[in-house]
Amino acid sequence: MNDFLIVGGGVIGMMMARTLADSGADVTIVDKNALGQESSWAGGGIVSPLYPWRYRPEITALANWSQGFYPKLAQQLLAETEIDPEYRAGGMLMLRVEDEAEALAWAARHQQPLTQVEADFIYQTEPNIAAGKVQAIWMPEVGSIRNPRLGQALKRSLELRPNIRIIEHVEIKAIRQMDGQAIGVDTANSVLSAGQVIVTAGAWSSALLAPIIPNLPIAPVKGQMLVYNAPKGLVNRVVMLDGRYVIPRNDGRILVGSTLEYADFDKQTTEEAKQSLIASAHAILPALKDLEPEYHWAGLRPGSPDGIPFIGAIPSVGKLHLNAGHFRNGLVLAPAATQLLCDQLLGNTPIIDPAPYQPALRLKQAEQGVMI
């Protein structure tokens, strides 16, 4: 029997497996698909909340702890696995921000390097963006990571650890319980036993936990994106305009995202969304008008009512834990979310106050209708 069984093999599940295994624990991680193939693969990889001043303090606390984690992790994973997650520094330029005063006040409160910049800076920094931009918000420390390659590197990192067992393409049917405690999970053909069970199944967490938590408010939120195979250097950092963004990759590809759609578990792409994303791409980088998108896809975020994740023990069943509901910020918050739950599981002093993320509190807030 393993010490820990992790259900869900996205970035958060894999990071948890890695951290717990490095503490000396025996870990099994299981996923209904291959590891890293759902929202962890489908996102853009910006290592910051979009417009971070618009989020609640609970999100800021996790994001602030995670800031600066990915450059070191990318170096570690490259050394371990020879797979480069392609962390790119360079900053984030946000054009035409209406609530600049709030952004500057937030930056002062949280000691964040965020400044207001004007046209000269904008076009010296990114000369190929559309003409006529006179003012922007600049966050120089924001970077991005190539999330599909991050998933590949994390998976290989797990494979190299002898105390981690990976099980892919196996669907979990139920949490197995005895005397009010989780003792493992049931699959279609077997039972996987463990001392502790951790659910990191993203948008699928609610369905898995429905017999235990009938109204867990985590639901799929579709996001559609597309990518251009563009000349290298057309854009060199994340640029945002009116809620949409472009993200450069090392090989010249440029991601464009993303939509926000409540469509249950439908991952079909639509022509309407494609044309909307193309229009956003052209509005930021007019040179993309000469290119056709290379690929168009959709993924499912684990939406929660206020974007604050559920991190901690399930109140009604012992030895059962949850780390899900990160909404649009799963990759951004993954380092802190991982460490926060691992600290609780291993009896370490938590990196930040765990109380606001505890499932017991979050479920009570949902029942009382106090989530926003």
UniProtKB/TrEMBL annotation:
It holds the Pfam family DAO. Keywords: Oxidoreductase, Thiamine biosynthesis. GO terms for molecular function: flavin adenine dinucleotide binding; oxidoreductase activity. Pathway: Cofactor biosynthesis; thiamine diphosphate biosynthesis. Residues 3-343 form the FAD dependent oxidoreductase domain. It comes from the Bacteria. Gene3D superfamilies: D-Amino Acid Oxidase, subunit A, domain 2, FAD/NAD(P)-binding domain. GO terms for cellular component: cytoplasm. GO terms for biological process: thiamine biosynthetic process; thiamine diphosphate biosynthetic process. InterPro entries: FAD-dep_OxRdtase, FAD/NAD-bd_sf, Gly_oxidase_ThiO. This is Glycine oxidase ThiO.
